[in-house]
Design a protein that fits this description.
The structure holds two protein chains of two kinds. Chain A is 40% helix and 23% strand. Chain A has ten helices and 13 strands. The radius of gyration of chain A is 56 Å and the shape is rod-shaped. The N and C termini of chain A lie far apart (193 Å). Chain B starts with 7 loop residues before the first helix and ends in a 6-residue tail after the last strand. The chains are: A alpha/beta, B mainly alpha. Strand 7 of chain A pairs parallel with strand 1 of chain B, so a sheet runs across the interface.
């Protein structure tokens, strides 16, 4: 061997050249393996080994980049950059971790669920009530997806006059959580006051739906300024975003049914109220008519009674007048004595002439004697 | 708030208030006739809106990728 042709480096230069070679050959790699010796140092640095049946490689990342709950034994796929540290240790610097296998996805869900539940993020006391007839809502979904189209179809069938602002995002894949978070931030910072923010996505595999178990996304939904309604997957699928939302629908179509009432049902309610009011009106008119009739009858009775009273009084007056009639006095056998020329009878003297009127005659007489009674 | 600014929910609430008024005893008959006409008009408005208005869908222009 010609040693003169073999490259010679210092330790630092060798490490630098090796890293350059690695960067050129493997700018970014995806490696599948099992997590081992997972630990977090100083609350910000994540270390673990990625192993298979024969080998293992060290991994490193910052805690804030870790979007899933990891523990030893979980199968993951990492996207990473291989690197030699200045101490000569070979390591993968992780950019992204994806869970592999339903078992791992389920375990991640359980770990994160436990952690978030302890923090109270799922408490019923946090849930806000959705308005029964919203006027303006925001929807975060893929506008090309079947789930979104189903939602719009049901909304149009059920209701009118709703204003929907749509944030078009990916709803699966590595980019999805960040896009949904950005859409949520945009909506929450808007000057528009939304009645509800919806997050929609149709059915998919556990892997597809794992987007909605991303810790940062879950926390973003929990912190939403506006009430949230999720319609993710099918009836049997429940994600952490579903649990932290104010209301969960089983599917995007069900979200539409929860969000707005059915216009036919509302028209029925309106008609029922009107019929009720009409009934009250009819009874009121009947009552008023009856009262008028009763009042009229009462007044008539009053008038008749008064008339009878007056007639009685009139008859009494007539009887009195009849009794006072001089003819009645004469008929009873009395007579009326008058002086001539209308002079007072009490001043009559002997020799005066008086007229005596009886029932049948007028007798002219001379006074022959006057005595005091 | 003008009549046109009122939402369907606002109008339904107004109708509820009118219905509640009719549940009082001793309704003055002239006012009852007037309020019944109001209730009828309100019901008509609500039905017309539910049948004729459309939902408005707008995409947010911001890109999130």
């Amino acid at each position: 061997m010609d040693f003169a042709k073999i490259p010679q480096f210092s330790v630092s230069d060798f490490i630098a050249v090796t890293n350059q070679t690695l960067e050129y050959a493997y700018q970014s790699v995806q490696i599948v393996g099992e997590v081992q010796s997972f630990k977090v140092n100083q609350g910000k640095f994540v270390f673990f080994d990625l192993k298979d049946e024969e080998s293992s490689v060290g991994c490193f990342m910052m805690l804030f980049s870790l979007r899933v709950a990891l523990e030893d034994g979980m199968k993951v796929m990492v996207q990473a950059t291989p690197k030699l540290t200045k101490f000569g240790k070979f390591s993968l610097t992780i950019q992204h971790i994806q869970l592999v296998g339903e078992g791992t996805i389920k375990r991640n869900f359980e770990l994160l669920h436990g952690r978030l539940q302890k923090e109270g993020l799922f408490d019923e006391a946090r849930k806000r009530i959705l308005p029964s007839m919203p006027t303006r809502v925001a929807v975060i979904s893929s506008m090309q997806s079947a789930g979104y189209k189903d939602f719009i179809k049901i909304i149009d069938e059920r209701w009118s006059g709703l204003h929907i602002d749509v944030a078009h995002v990916q709803v699966q894949g590595a980019e999805a959580p960040n896009q949904i978070i950005k859409a949520l931030e945009h909506i929450n910072q808007s000057s528009i006051v939304y009645d509800v923010v919806l997050i929609l996505r149709g059915g998919g595999s556990a892997d597809d739906l794992s987007v909605f178990n991303d810790e940062q996304l879950v926390r973003a939904v929990a912190g939403s300024r506006f009430p949230t309604l999720t319609g993710i997957g099918h009836e049997v699928d429940t994600t952490l975003v579903d649990l932290v939302a104010d209301r969960r629908a089983s599917t995007p179509s069900n979200a539409a049914q929860i969000l707005v009432p059915d216009r036919g049902a509302v028209v029925d309610i309106v008609n029922t109220k009107l019929v009720r009011v009409l009934g009250v009106m009819e009874r009121r008119v009947d009552t008023a008519s009856q009262k008028v009739a009763q009042d009229t009858e009462f007044m008539a009775r009053q008038i008749i009674g008064r008339k009878q009273t007056l007639e009685s009084q009139l008859e009494a007056l007539r009887r009195t007048l009849r009794q006072l009639d001089p003819e009645q006095v004469l008929n009873r056998g009395y007579s009326i004595v008058r002086r001539e020329n209308g002079l007072e009878l009490e001043e009559v003297q002997v020799g005066d002439m008086v007229a005596i009127e009886t029932k049948k005659n007028i007798i002219k007489s001379e006074v022959i004697d006057v005595k005091k009674r | 708030m003008s009549k046109n600014d009122k939402t369907i929910a606002d109008k339904l609430h107004e109708l509820d208030e009118l219905v509640l008024w009719f549940e009082c005893e001793d309704l003055p008959i002239e006012e009852a006739v007037k309020k019944f006409a109001e209730a009828e008009q309100l019901a008509e408005n609500i039905q017309a809106e539910l049948e004729k208005l459309e939902n408005k869908i707008e995409q947010i222009k911001e890109k999130f990728n």
